[in-house]
């Protein structure tokens, strides 16, 4: 690698590369817990970047609890920190979301009516020119914003509740109150980089990776009643699905274990402590 | 915002901000399809950055098919492009992965034995000092790498197959051939930023958002047989779960619809074309 130049300002793109590289090495075990990291000048030479850049990468690792900086001694890899995460059972995530609506705080960022984007119009099966109610909410748990929710509801349903209702009541409950008979949903899960506004609302850096869920909810007639685009901070929220192998005739299959689908009591398959107030949400300690 | 300075080099961090901001506006419909974008000098003034930075952000949007640059005329928002994505049915993802093992190409990047990280040892329930086989594979479909898979298997099972076996045969099949009776799995889904090595292997930019799945597979006795950490390109792969509402006594519940869990034929609930060769994978056109 070329000898580093030594600018006095941090190079953010290079700092991101070094940060992600070191993070991978720590999480994969290549840099073992308690190990002393190479010195800043050595890291700078290794990576062909300035010391300022190395310092910026190490600061971000320290903020995330992956390393510990001991003044006068050096930087040490920490035993992976155990951070609290909301874990939603994916196969039954709706029930939990209603419960979450009651236990977490909601901030309403936007509320109004508009013509939908093509994707929303197609997902909800709207007539051309049919308007939707669009709302943007941030959900907060323990003072930490963890999800950014953009929802679109056909205007004919949306007008049955107010902005104030949406601040206080889970959307699914409002939809049902309006007479919609919610019957099915399709969820698609992906990942996305946080843009500046979303990063700001969720308290993460621009460009941070977020878990994304697109959900289209339909009523008994197959008409769309809600289109949700949700972004979650992966350090605070993850999805979980338990699967078991079942015999079906001569072949083995995998089936999601969910209380209603598998016909078992919800408690029977859980080894982790449940949050008594929110039985759908497991607050657990995860090893990062 | 301050008047922009005009450096001749792009400012990557600022270009990322502008790119993500404009992308959000296009995907949310705030910038409508076919609309002409503001000129480069106007965008530079609006965002307080150089024209070089604006050009770099617009180039990335153009590469992703979100805008079209017409020389001498300007930059136009495109109708959201429809890109092919592998969609895996989340509630039955295993069966599909075996099928994918047969239909996609695999590149083996690493293979060896090592002491596990604390998270892997805990996940698999290993004795202290027990080694694991670690492999790193990249899975490719239509010439595009879409997943980066790191697997850990207890050494006592791993030694039953070779590096060459792993290049040609799905891991789940190798585990079963070794006598392991695979019975259950827990999958956790999140998101992560690509480090430089992983970005390189998947053909994305360092820092790009990836979908992550951690899966712990156990045998009939509850012993861990596989720990998987998988990263997926969200533009090429997403997870899907269909849910339906069911009445259980007096309360309504949500249940995952999967062929074996809900006892329906697989075809009955699908409206999208299936890939005939890989019935577990839906190749569909998504509207981004």
TrEMBL record, chains A, B:
| Chain intervals for the UniProt region annotation (Disordered) | 256-288
Q: Which GO terms describe its molecular function?
A: DNA binding; DNA-binding transcription factor activity
- InterPro entries linked to this entry: Bact_HTH_transcr_reg (IPR050679), Chorismate_lyase_/UTRA_dom_sf (IPR028978), Tscrpt_reg_HTH_GntR (IPR000524), UTRA (IPR011663), WH-like_DNA-bd_sf (IPR036388), WH_DNA-bd_sf (IPR036390)
Cross-referenced Pfam families: GntR, UTRA
Residue limits of the HTH gntR-type domain? Answer: 12-80
Question: A Gene Ontology biological process annotation?
Answer: negative regulation of DNA-templated transcription
Superkingdom in the source lineage: Bacteria
For this protein, the record's PROSITE patterns field holds: HTH_GNTR
Q: Does the keyword Transcription apply?
A: yes
Check the UniProt entry and state the signal peptide residues, or none: none
Q: Keyword set for this entry? A: DNA-binding, Transcription, Transcription regulation
Query: Which ranges are annotated Low complexity under compositional bias?
Result: 256-268
Q: What is this protein called?
A: GntR family transcriptional regulator
Species source reads: Jiella endophytica
């Amino acid at each position: 690698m070329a000898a580093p130049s030594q600018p006095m300002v941090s190079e953010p793109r290079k700092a991101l590369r070094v940060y992600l590289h070191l993070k991978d090495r720590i999480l994969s075990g290549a840099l073992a817990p308690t190990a002393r990291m190479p010195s800043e000048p050595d890291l700078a030479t290794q990576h062909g970047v300035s010391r300022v850049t190395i310092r910026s990468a190490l600061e971000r690792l320290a903020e995330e609890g992956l390393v510990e900086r001991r003044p006068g001694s050096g930087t040490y890899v920490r035993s992976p920190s155990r951070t609290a995460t909301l874990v939603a059972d994916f196969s039954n995530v709706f029930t939990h979301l209603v419960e979450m609506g009651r236990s977490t705080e909601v901030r309403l960022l936007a509320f109004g009516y508009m013509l939908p984007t093509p994707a929303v119009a197609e997902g909800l099966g709207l007539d051309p020119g049919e308007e939707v109610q669009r709302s943007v909410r941030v959900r907060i748990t323990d003072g930490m914003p963890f999800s950014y929710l953009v929802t679109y509801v056909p205007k004919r349903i949306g007008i049955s509740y107010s902005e104030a209702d949406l601040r206080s009541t889970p959307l699914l409950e409002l939809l049902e109150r309006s007479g919609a008979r919610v019957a099915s949903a399709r969820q698609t899960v992906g990942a996305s980089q946080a843009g500046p506004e979303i990063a700001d609302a969720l308290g993460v850096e621009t460009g941070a990776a977020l878990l994304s869920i697109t959900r289209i909810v339909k009523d008994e007639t197959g008409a769309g009643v809600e289109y949700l685009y949700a972004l979650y901070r992966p350090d605070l929220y993850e999805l979980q699905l338990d699967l078991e192998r079942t015999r079906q005739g001569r072949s083995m299959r995998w089936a999601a274990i969910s209380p209603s689908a598998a016909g078992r009591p919800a408690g029977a398959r859980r080894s982790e402590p449940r949050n008594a107030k929110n039985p759908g949400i497991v607050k657990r300690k995860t090893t990062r």
